[in-house]
Q: What sequence folds into this?
């Protein structure tokens, strides 16, 4: 019932950790209560759309893992309503005038689940470990603004040269190589959480592979996960610094991939919340328990230009995009509140600093998301002639959930309207899809991204040359230059930086570097006696800490 839409991206990807975000789509938690001698028990019964992959915050990259990490760990900041930064382990922050140095003063009363104090040294250890190329962190690229990160990734410097240091136990100093306008948003993401060196060293390569082989410093501890099972629990962490404001005693989670199964469990009282899809949304829209959340994520198609020669041709890529009626996909096939995309960056994520216009509208390129079957067939014939082919077979790789199966089947029916194109579908578990995608073992793949932080760069950086999420191998020099400019010469000028990103999105859509399919919505039924939940359109749900069953 939650996912990285990532962000639950980005992995989470990415993602969304955060993603969250996923969706797959963004996360929402809901709950229920049981009664014991007339007293309300603060216990939630929730589901998740796919398996838990890892509890190692340096390696987590998909929504389920990132969501658990948001609640079992904590970093310098948390995200409040509308992604507002709130102090977590940081009690104060000083930023130098040039924006290159951050000094964080840390609270002194947080402990790991084994009772040892959380210190600035735990942050230093974690960040160096993530930056170390040996760790192979998919989210390590988020560290690229920190001094010496690039040289460390190229193995020119050792990880201990990363621009982060501890001064005593409770002061953390971070030095950047360039201004990073969204740095505070970044450090609220799980990849920036601290890690306990003694525990990582104890378990080595097994760290984070089960609930007993890690340590926790967040509101909850995870128990009952052996690395492969599909059920686990989050229990209140007695060593958490703010435990008095954590109302939930326990959260029970289990994997439920089918919306129909989830709804049945909800109706039987075995789940306290459920994510709806398709006709379920229409049937329950007027139900008092119905909630709908949109924003911060995108479902898109990656085209493997490295593996399939024909996909290197722009007209072939444009034809594949324009033969798909994305409005029909959202409203007639999925029918879950999802909407037609305007581009890669989702709506309701970021606004023009001056005009307050939605970024997605400013960056809109009609041809990148248009439905024009006549032009699509014309482009297809021209493109196929240019690559010297009259036939092409492509396999669509997708997750094995009902929603992505439906999307894949619809794409198959639309694509096969192009002369000489035949399509097969391969559905696999989400983790398998992610692994195959990362290795480039696909023709076209339905991918998910949920924003890990509320900035367009979180989407746009994915498609730069060499990015670990750019699995289709899109490369465009102008695009890379614009992204680089937004993070260097224009980094301290909000409007110029914004304009750079708008121009980059337009290049991406004009070159059809990917095909946006739909912006997902999360429609759910959840109990009306739940109070205090915070929904963040950017970043995975962090609201469980604040929930109380009344």
A:
């Amino acid at each position: 019932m939650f996912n990285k839409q990532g962000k639950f991206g980005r992995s989470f990807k990415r993602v969304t950790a955060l993603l969250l975000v996923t969706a797959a789509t963004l996360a929402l938690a809901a709950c229920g209560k049981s009664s014991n001698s007339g007293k309300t028990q603060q216990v939630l019964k929730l589901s998740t759309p796919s398996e838990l992959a890892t509890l190692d915050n340096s390696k987590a990259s998909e929504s389920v893992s990132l969501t658990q990490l948001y609640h079992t760990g904590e970093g310098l900041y948390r995200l409040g309503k509308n992604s507002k930064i709130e102090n977590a382990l940081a009690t104060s922050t000083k930023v130098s005038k040039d924006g290159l140095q951050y000094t964080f003063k840390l609270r002194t009363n947080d402990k790991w689940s084994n009772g040892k104090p959380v210190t600035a040294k735990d942050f230093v250890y974690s960040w160096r470990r993530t930056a170390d190329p040996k760790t192979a962190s998919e989210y390590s690229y988020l560290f690229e603004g920190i001094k010496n990160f690039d040289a460390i990734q190229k193995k020119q410097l050792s990880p201990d040269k990363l621009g982060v240091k501890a001064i005593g136990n409770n002061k953390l100093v971070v030095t950047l190589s360039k201004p990073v306008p969204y740095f505070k948003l970044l450090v609220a993401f799980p990849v920036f959480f601290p890690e306990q060196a003694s525990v990582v060293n104890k378990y080595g390569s097994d760290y984070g592979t089960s609930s007993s082989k890690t340590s926790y410093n967040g509101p909850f501890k995870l128990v009952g996960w052996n690395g492969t099972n599909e059920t686990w629990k989050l229990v209140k962490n007695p060593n958490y610094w703010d435990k008095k404001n954590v109302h939930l005693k326990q959260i029970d989670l289990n994997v439920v991939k089918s919306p129909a199964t989830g709804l049945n469990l909800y109706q039987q009282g075995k789940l306290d919340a459920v994510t709806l899809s398709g006709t379920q949304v229409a049937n329950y829209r007027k139900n008092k328990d119905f909630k709908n959340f949109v924003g911060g994520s995108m479902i898109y198609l990656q085209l493997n230009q490295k593996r399939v020669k024909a996909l290197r041709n722009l007209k072939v890529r444009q034809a594949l995009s324009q033969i798909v009626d994305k409005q029909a996909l959202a409203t007639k096939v999925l029918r879950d509140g999802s909407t037609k995309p305007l581009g890669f960056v989702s709506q309701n994520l970021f606004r023009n600093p001056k005009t307050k216009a939605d970024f997605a509208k400013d960056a809109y390129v009609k041809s990148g998301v248009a439905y024009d079957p006549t032009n699509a067939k014309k482009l297809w014939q021209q493109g196929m002639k240019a690559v010297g082919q009259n036939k092409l077979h492509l396999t669509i790789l997708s997750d094995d959930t009902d929603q992505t199966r439906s999307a894949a089947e619809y794409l198959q029916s639309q694509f096969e309207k192009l002369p000489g194109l035949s399509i097969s579908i391969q559905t696999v578990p989400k983790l398998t899809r992610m692994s195959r995608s990362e290795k480039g073992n696909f023709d076209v793949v339905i991918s998910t991204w949920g924003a890990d932080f509320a900035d367009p760069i979180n989407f746009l950086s994915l498609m730069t040359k060499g990015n670990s999420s750019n699995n289709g191998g899109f490369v465009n020099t102008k695009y890379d230059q614009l992204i680089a400019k937004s993070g260097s010469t224009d980094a301290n000028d909000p409007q110029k930086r914004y304009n750079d990103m708008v121009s980059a999105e337009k290049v991406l859509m004009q070159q059809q570097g990917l095909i946006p399919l739909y912006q997902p919505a999360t429609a759910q039924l959840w109990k009306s006696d739940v109070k205090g939940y915070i929904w963040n359109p950017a970043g995975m749900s962090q609201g469980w800490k604040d929930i109380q069953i009344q």
Q: What stands out?
A: The radius of gyration is 23 Å. The CA atoms of residues 486 and 493 lie 9 Å apart. The longest strand covers residues 392-399. The chain has a mean pLDDT of 89.
